[in-house]
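Researcher: Here's my situation. A collaborator sent me these components and asked whether they could plausibly form a single complex. I don't have experimental data yet, so a predicted model of the whole assembly would be a useful starting point for our discussion.
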Amino acid sequence: MTNAPHAPFPYARPRRLRRTGWMRDMVRESRVGPQDLIWPLFVLDGEDRTEEVSSMPGVQRLSIDRAVEAVAEAAELGIPCVALFPYTDPAVKTEDCEEAWNPENLVCRATRAIKAQVPNIGVLLDVALDPYNALGQDGIVRDGEIVNDETLIALEKQALCQAEAGADILGPSDMMDGRVGVIRRALEENEFSDVAIMSYAAKYASVFYGPFRDAVGASGALQGDKKTYQMDPGNTDEALKEVAIDIAEGADMVMVKPGLPYLDVCRRVKDEFGVPTFAYQVSGEYAMIEAAARNGWIDGEGAMWESLLAFKRAGCDGILTYHAIKAAKALKQG
Ligand code: PBG
């Protein structure tokens, strides 16, 4: 493909295919459509409430009633799936994270409301303890250590609770060892065999999650960092190992996170495994584009398209992006 024979200059003139918009359109290899987009959104307690996320201009936290309306719009625009994240009241956060498997927790109530009122869109929920953990970590902390196997017991309870609430896809995002296997077995044993798993398989310890932690109200709680469980940014062979393990444990789809700084990982994962592969264009990536655009330093919409296209070029089957609604609206208008 890459080394296809071509005529020498002047017979080969690559610019011939770039002359006009319709020609560029006709020969373009990668494209972005609404079906490529998964929209992460933040839900908030109360009714008729909207709060701006200051570190993510244009992103809001919505109460469940407003989230239902926003999700209905997403479905209308052809977005196949939303990912819900709760802004959890600090008063219910504990060191044992019991709120994670409370069937009346915010994200479970939001899921039930969306499944009841917008049946034709998928709901993806994060399986991880950080929204519920008084210490802000994704795992249970004992004597300053994030303990793996005790966390798995909690994740299993959380996953079953989320499946019961109607989640279509579970996204284990905690990077504990063995979690996909534990969740898959629990789903099978409890008649949730149709619930899919999209594992955050290659999730790096990244500073690009900063604005998200503000958005879900976890920044204040978090002590230290997540480097003993999230991956080291210097590694890619290890990403392939993580993906192989998760697929073997029963993941249906895998994710690379963050997105743009890890496109090489997306490409390697897609080439090596050929499973549905998603990238998460995370909060910090979104914030960088929006901040520069709002300062007049870059063309924000252009940067949005170019980065979304990069994920498709790198082999991704879809992208979790805070730009989903804006992009899908623009696509609809043509
Ligand atoms: C929690 C989780 C995080 C994100 C998604 N799920 C934050 C983290 O691991 O600290 C980040 C998403 C984003 O930055 O947009 N496990």
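Model: Some features of this prediction you could bring to your collaborator: Residues 148-165 form the longest helix (18 residues). Residues 126, 128, 130, 138, 173-174, 209, 212-213, 226, 282-283 surround PBG (CB under 6 Å).
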